[in-house]
Amino acid sequence: MASRNDASVEPNSVQENEKISLRRSFEEVIQKLEEVFSEMPNPETHVMEKLSEELELDITQIGIWFENKRYYIQAQKDMEEREIIRLENEKLRSENLQMCSEVKKRFCATCNNPKQQRAILQDLQNENAKLGEENTILIDLTMKSLFMIYVIFLLVLFSVMQTNHALRLVKEGGDEKSVSAAELTCPKSRIQISQAASGTINGIPEYSVIIINECESSCSGIHLSCGEFATTKLINPKIFRRLAINDCLVNDGATLKSGQVLSFTYSNSFKYPMSLSKNISPVSPRCCTTPTKRTGMPDVYTKLVQLSKNITPVSQRHCTTPTS
Question: Which domain of life does the UniProt lineage start with (predicted)?
Fold first, then answer.
């Protein structure tokens, strides 16, 4: 009976010893792998082959263990970083709520009072409308001031031209001296034409043209050489229009008085060169005056009045002949 019990006990003890030895062997393998991993997480092939021989494991198993270990370490790091970020977000959220509460207490005392809110909104709208009206008035005043400055400039220019002409006549002196025929023709250089860029219209350049009669008397039938003039902006045809290629008519052919200024704007992708036409007849443009007797040294104001009375309109093909 005792022998049977001894026989049943021996196999159990053997199995336990085998389990213990396997457990120790597994722990030793893991410890060895951990030591190698701490030194080199990505071992080279010859290192893995040496471990395979030393631990009696397949090299594929060792490679899988190292790969799983790297994934585990990375996952641990990611979890730690996410936890840190979560804690920072919670802290920021708490601070944000606290700041919003403080701001609401200080600057939004009327948030819970709809009537007061509507009153404030109405006050703001009224103030905005008032500012808009003041802005409109200011713009109107500015435009009127600029226009008045422009008019004053033209008047001063005209006065200076008339004064210079009167002084020239006074210096010449002489009794019953008539104006020579050479004085009756206004040279082309006395018709000033200038143009400059003034902005854009829908992306197309805009140019301003100013024509000034600097002759001492009136001129009519003024034609300009303007090439194939064209514009995307409408121009008053009584001020400027193209009759044919390289032929444009100014002031509808009517008289342009001494010192008179004409201006218009046109829009095109480039600037057209403009000059007084060379193909016009000698009569056009022609400046005519009625000669007057000059005696003594009249004052400038009296001379200006006489000149204004003596300037007579001329037609495109007719000019009065001076008389002695």
Answer: Eukaryota
> For residue 219, which of 169, 245, 258, 252 has the smallest C-alpha distance?
258
Strands annotated E in the chain: 191-201, 204-213, 223-225, 240-244, 247-250, 261-267, 275-276
Q: What is the DSSP letter of 188?
A: G
**How far does CA 272 lie from the centroid of its chain?**
26
Crossing angle of helices 59-107/45-55, nearest 10°? Answer: 120
Q: Do the Cβ atoms of 265 and 205 come closer than 8 Å?
A: no
The residue among 279, 212, 222 whose CA lies nearest residue 254 is: 222
* Average pLDDT over the chain, rounded to an integer: 75
What pTM value is reported for the model?
0.35
How much is the average pLDDT of 218-227? 87
